[in-house]
């Protein structure tokens, strides 16, 4: 069963954000470093059998409740199983944004934000496209 867990950055280090703040397990920290996951306010991580299979990083806007998408990734063997969508859903449920800003750099990302737009019509979606990265 896939588990979805929220973490947030505290003073530039990841910490668990459910209840008391605890250090992230070292295996998750090392995986995120290996994947070169950079700083964001929060991250939702999908794990299966205690291994990371995907994440969604995001920042919270100064004009809250805005959510700035900072990166979504699901390892290839788990794509097309709604994991990325579920990661976004968890963040949306947790933050209740009225606006989401995202930069899309892949066809999969374009499909994802289109689905989010259809499923959450009351949320304003401000999407920019990196046309060099999208397949025609």
Strand order of the main beta sheet, please?
Answer: 3-2-1-4-5-6-7-8
Strand elements, count: 8
Report the principal-axis shape: globular
Which class of secondary structure composition applies to the elements?
alpha+beta
What's the overall average pLDDT, rounded? 80
Strand residue content: 35-45%
Unreliably modeled segments = 15-23
Which sequence of SSEs, written as H and E, runs from N to C?
EEEHEEEHEHE
Radius of gyration: 15 Å
Number of helices: 3
Helix content: 25-40%
- Main beta-sheet strand count, sense and barrel state: 8 strands, mixed
Distance separating the two termini: 36 Å
Index terms:
3 helices, alpha+beta
Task: Describe this structure as you would to a colleague.
The chain has 136 residues and is α+β, with helices and mostly antiparallel strands. Helices cover 26% and strands 38% of the residues. It has helices spanning 26-34, 83-95, 107-119; strands at 3-10, 13-16, 22-23, 42-48, 51-60, 66-74, 99-104, 124-129. A hairpin with a 5-residue loop joins β2 and β3 (22-23). The chain is globular.
Q: Secondary-structure map with pairings?
A:
Elements: E1 3-10, E2 13-16, E3 22-23, H1 26-34, E4 42-48, E5 51-60, E6 66-74, H2 83-95, E7 99-104, H3 107-119, E8 124-129
Parallel strand pairs: 6-7, 7-8
Antiparallel strand pairs: 1-2, 1-4, 2-3, 4-5, 5-6
